[in-house]
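ARCHIVE CARD
Drawer: 12
Card no.: 0347
Subject: one protein chain, sequence and derived structure
Cross-reference: see card 0346
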Amino acid sequence: MAINAGIRGLIRKLAVKNAIDYGSARDGPILAKVLSKDPSLKSEIKSVNAAIKEILAEVNSLSKAELEKEYDKHSAEFEQEAARKAEKSSIHNFSIQGAEQGNFVTRFPPEPGGYMHIGHAKPLFVEDELRRVYGGELLLYFDDTNPDNERQEFVDAFKEDLKWLGVQFEREYYASDNIARLYEYANVAIRRGKAYVCICDGERIKQYRMEGKDCEHKKQGMEENIARWNDMLEGRFSDNEAILRFSSDMGAANTTLRDPTLFRIKHASHYRQGKKYFIWPTYDFCTPILDSTNGITDVVRSKEYELRDELYFAVLDALGLRKPRITSFSRLEISNNVTSKRKIRELIAEGKISGWDDPRLVTIRALMKRGITAEAIKQFSLGFGLGKAESVVDIEMLLNINRRIVDPTAKRLFFIEDPKPMHIEGIEGRIVEMKLNSQPDSGYRKYKLGGDLFINASDSNRLQKGDTVRLKDAFNVTIKGVGEKIEATYQGDAQAEIPRIQWIPKDGAMECELVHIGNLLEGESLNGKSMTSTKGYAEAYASVLKEGDLVQFERRGLFKLDSRKAMSFLSM
């Protein structure tokens, strides 16, 4: 099917806007917008893709001046769309009913069982924004009562990542530093008939919870429960042989209230407390108590915990403690990726990813390594507001925000994938200056030419004897001969409506590798093409780049220099 002129015009307009925004037009965002304008085109996806590729090739060959000229034709429309988006993004109301100015304390509660990821960023920045709105406090609370998985390495990593993200805390505290005090609250719960020691095996506990049936240990008197609790504290039980349970309602429709576990036995050494304790509280017991006793006025968390809210308040009621206010919002997930600490540990152990900072992941370390800025993560996180609508989004949304932030200052360079030599008569000794980016004070890269260049073989394949083309940002040449080497002559500097091609001086051309990062998963399986690479040559200016520098390789997109030794760049 031939794509009609109206759709082709839309594609070209979107491609021009995309090229202006990001240095070169990309097919993915354009396809998504075209299909959103006309969903019926999904049945003609092959034809649409073919038209997009054809038009992108044309647009990406335009000079900056030509792009800007075409952009100006639609600038009013683009500005109106940007204004609509800005208005829509500004409607988020970061407020909580009942919260008071100057009387607001919340906490960010990571478990140090892995590295911080994008899912942590949303509650972090929402809490930070609410602190600002109410002139309150934000505390850092490490929920560290599982000695099996928690390590000092993860505590340190969280602190480093939080510092990089630019969020500061009034103070920090650890659940594991409060175990003795939590034992006292366990005694209170037992004496009030709100907790009992259960020695049923795991299968029976699970079965009785499903059936809504009380186990025999719930009938124990207070004295017997105190004695068995003391037996637990004195080490008379092995791991998982006894637990302290909350005495609630085994017939409750909310299954979290069916006598949940409050304390369990784990003899593993704890990263912070060593062997000092082996009876460890669960999140459902220690968190409400520590929230109440640490002055937390507002718990702000994702709605995955909503079913546990009733249990949270039931524990505080049982102990006679003050109840904070809870505000829930949607959890943020990135599609086709992994945030589960257990799954990431498995992938690392199996050698399928390189570590917690593998650039295909969405850990903060991985995003940092890839060149995603803290400001982009903040804007992305706050963009969803406090709504409860599910937020499962493509990482492209974050990448687009990041590109808008870094593109103005990224250095513009040429990259040649499949080099074809070209010799040009009449340019020996000529000095060419090209701006590093569009900023007024960006500086230049300068080259003294010797006559020999590299161009892309894909460009050379279209050249014929007698053609006149422009070397981008430089001058015009006429083709004298096409063979193993393209022979050409200098034809002046004047701008003209002729094809433009990328080039790099042969002298100083640097071998490098562009690493393209894609989705880690394809459905439930690992994506075999989640990391691919393109080898080629960058112009000599690349030799002065430092690790971490950002580069806009024309027609290739934004990259971050990851390794100077390997001259390896990661896609952004």
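Annotation on reverse: The mean pLDDT is 93. Residues 107 and 185 are 21 Å apart (CA to CA).
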